[in-house]
Amino acid sequence: MNTEKVLLKNETCIKQVRYSDITHISICGDCSTFMLNDTSSFSLSKSLNEISKKLPDYFIRVNRNYIINSEHIQEFRYKSRKITLEGNITFTVSHRNLKLVKDTFKRHLF
Question: Residue 93: pLDDT above 80?
């Protein structure tokens, strides 16, 4: 399990989080929210583009609104373009990002 950490900062606090604890990141307006595997969250004012440039390569942009941590994927149904994370959280992969997601999976297949 990955033990690298990141510091997340918003207007009121700074929080240290292990990358492996981040399940996914969502955007709503100008606020990005990091969802953690303990069901807590942390919001800050950065775009997903800014965030994705600083994340390790096992974080995947699945569509315009979400980045997921591939370490938390339980299932990928490529015909329907659905990814399910631990906790049964489901995302639809955009057509644009489908090849990237498939390539990421191929690197980890037996």
Answer: yes
